[in-house]
Amino acid sequence: MSAKPDRPEVDQDAGHLEDMPSKQDDDSWKDRPPYRTTDASEKFQKRHTAHCHCGRVKYWLSQEKPLAAKFCHCIDCQALHGAPFQWAAIFHKEDLHFEKGAEGLAFYHAPSKGTHYELPVKVSCANCHSPLMDEGRNMVLMFPGIIKFRGAEDKKHFDPQCHIFYSQRVVDLPDGKPKWVGLDKKSELMKDVQPHEAETIVGERKTETAE
Ligand SMILES: [Zn+2]
Ligand SMILES: [Zn+2]
Prior knowledge:
By secondary structure, the chain is mainly β. The protein has helices spanning 75-81, 152-156; strands at 22-23, 48-51, 58-61, 68-72, 86-92, 96-98, 105-108, 118-119, 121-125, 131-135, 139-142, 162-164. The strands form 3 sheets. The protein has a 7-stranded mixed β-sheet with strand order 7-9-10-11-5-4-12. Strands 2-3-6 form a 3-stranded antiparallel β-sheet, with no helix packed on it.
């Protein structure tokens, strides 16, 4: 019955640690996407299913493809994901639906190093600690590694368009995709190396930008 709220513009900074603080003193966020629990009147299309490693947290995506997908090489992602870089796909909050709402989730507010719910917040499974998503003010960055893809075609929709914070990388990835010093379209593009020149970066990071 109720009209869908206007969709906000794509928030390039979604989930990034410099995001504006937005303190929540009540629990009203649990009634909003992506945490609100199933409402019988709601027609939510379950196009993709995602769940954490232990399977206690499950959610669905209503869209076939994300607004964008990226590899982030920033040092915060390296530390928080225990990986050389992070693969993220951007969705509107209402495109996600957790099976049990906020139940079983753990939150981490990186700017204050607190384990409470405050945007931007990193969301993981409270049991197995698989990273699930970063929630920004308007968007979420979910991690496609937890999607149970039905096939290669499905997965292709999540192919990243670019690399961000490439200046902080630990390994060269000469895939021909745009490589940004910081955020995409808000920083400079960097030079790609030839595949035979690719290496693990152990010393000073190269910061050569493209012409
Ligand atoms: Zn889990
Ligand atoms: Zn990052």
